[in-house]
Design goal:
61% helix, single chain, 5-stranded parallel beta sheet, Serine Threonine Protein Phosphatase 5, Tetratricopeptide repeat, globular, Rossmann fold, 25 helices, mainly alpha
């Protein structure tokens, strides 16, 4: 590409792709592929835009063309693997990573990508083999050493995990992610061995390093604006708002959709556990934190100056099509369960679009929620930036739960709250109660949910926990960190009272 106008067009296409304007990006890339039909990376990026738009056939067509042009490009295959992961196509991702590794016999990155994917699919022995192949290439590789320790911790080899992590940290890793992730992992190992002060010290080091990776202050300001907007707009609505909306969007004007339930609550309140329990029912098609609501439904809703029935039906139709596409034909005749904690903040949009929606809210002791979130190593963005301090974590909790405490006062919709502590105490009893609320009968496979969970890839940051039988060690975990929570208690006290955690 050797002309300024062409470079400008490519940059514009990439900007559309980065901003998730996928239709515009596809149009731009279509023209670029006509102008530069022999540029493999343009075909690859065209496929990325198609993937964002949910056009999987188009993804395959464009990436096949890219590989025809550069069949031995290991970096191209590596990036395809990452994109397949984002599209929730783990088998295709694995094939891409394996092919990239063959093409690059000394490449660490494709082997590490394969190790991570295998671990996420609970294939620990194969993941260790991939890590071992990295260490055979470079015994001092930061990523491989970190991931070997992570696998030790996953398999409850806590002494080996701690030893590996301390050695890694002492060696001064240069990989930016490993620098802080190794400290997060060490904190978890220390927590599991009841060395709570040491765990908090390791977390403090990790979070200091994370703060250097981005403009956290700007992210928090962005979050405060966004969260404040949703909190205030929800709290200002009257308790009879659903009746008003029903007049504007009566049942006779709604296009029929499959049975639909939303499972929300604050992150680390037991949503993943509950989704796995409900998803083990043969009449439930469960989605693990899909992007369809935020990326399609809420985006289109917020962009609409007028919300006439025709427009609402279009949004409903596109959302349902997106989740059915992700489920890959598994939703036929089943209850669709959309589990995603963060969109709880947007419940007014959920109920405006889907008056027939059943809402399940997972609760857990607010103090346990805050501590658990604080321990999470999750990508830095305006929402997760709150988890860099306990006080901001408590603020995040307050913003989201203020929305729920307002919405649960609304008249005329179907909702239920379920406590993590009740599930731990009696899985069958509480699971049955929630299952019956969803209009189903308890199924014996739900009591063995972890067997099914261990055979599939999950996308929640806490996917590993949901592959285990229910355990009680996380109940009242906050008491070990009570002195650290002291500055947050004034924020959390209201929610402890409102939700019965006193």
């Amino acid at each position: 590409m050797n002309s300024a106008p062409a470079e400008k067009k490519l940059n514009e296409a990439r900007q559309c792709l980065q901003q998730h304007h996928f239709s515009q990006a596809m149009s731009a890339y279509e023209k670029l592929t006509q102008q530069f039909p022999h540029k493999a990376w343009i075909w690859f990026e065209y496929g990325c835009a198609a993937g964002g738009a949910g056009l999987l056939d188009q993804v395959e067509r464009t990436w096949r063309k890219a590989l025809e042009l550069e069949p031995n490009n290991s970096e191209l295959l590596l990036q395809m693997g990452h994109r397949y992961q984002a599209l929730r196509l783990p088998q295709k991702a694995r094939a891409s990573f394996e092919r990239a590794a063959v093409l690059d016999p000394r490449g660490i990155n494709p082997r590490m990508a394969l190790a991570i994917l295998l671990e996420q699919n609970h294939r620990f022995a194969e993941s260790r083999e991939a890590v071992a192949s990295c260490l055979a290439i470079d015994p001092r590789d930061d990523q491989a050493r970190y991931f070997a320790a992570l696998l030790d911790r996953r398999e409850n080899k806590l002494e080996a995990a701690e030893r590996g992590l301390r050695d890694l940290i002492a060696s001064g890793p240069r990989h930016p992610y490993v620098m802080y992730a190794s400290r997060y992992e060490l904190a978890e190992a220390l927590n599991r061995t009841d060395r709570f002060d040491e765990a908090m010290a390791a977390l403090a080091e990790a979070k200091k390093l994370v703060r250097s990776c981005g403009d956290v202050d700007t992210m928090l300001k962005e979050y405060d604006v966004e969260a404040g907007k949703y909190r205030r707009s929800t709290q200002e609505l009257p308790t009879n708002i659903l009746r008003t909306w029903a007049k504007d969007f009566p049942e006779k004007s709604r296009e029929a959709i499959p049975r639909l339930a939303f499972l929300g609550g604050h992150p680390r309140s037991g949503t993943t556990l509950l989704e796995q329990i409900l998803g083990a029912h043969p009449e439930v098609a469960a989605l693990d934190e899909p992007g369809a609501f935020t990326g399609i439904a809420a985006a289109m809703f917020n962009a609409s100056p007028q919300l006439l029935p025709a427009r609402l039906n279009v949004i409903r139709r596109l959302y349902i099509a997106a989740v059915q596409r992700e489920l890959g034909g598994q939703a036929e005749g089943k209850l669709i369960l959309d589990k995603n904690p963060s969109p709880t903040l947007k419940l007014r949009i959920w109920l405006r679009l889907f008056p027939e929606l059943r809402v399940i809210i997972a609760l857990r002791d607010p103090r346990d929620v805050v501590i658990s979130c604080y321990f999470q190593n999750i990508p830095l963005n305006p929402f997760n930036a709150n988890f860099l301090s306990l006080e901001r974590t408590a603020t995040h909790y307050a913003n989201l739960m203020d929305v729920w405490l307002a919405v649960r006062q609304w008249e005329g919709f179907a909702w239920i709250e379920t406590r993590y502590e009740d599930i731990v105490a009696d899985l069958a009893k509480e699971g049955r109660r929630v299952t019956e609320f969803a209009g189903l009968t308890w199924h014996e496979e739900q009591g063995r949910f972890h067997e099914k969970s261990a055979k599939k890839q999950m996308y929640s940051p806490t996917y590993h926990d949901a592959t285990q039988p229910v355990y009680a060690r996380s109940v009242s975990r906050w008491r070990a960190y009570e002195k650290y929570l002291a500055p947050c208690q004034p924020i959390l006290e209201r929610y402890c009272r409102a939700l019965g955690y006193v």
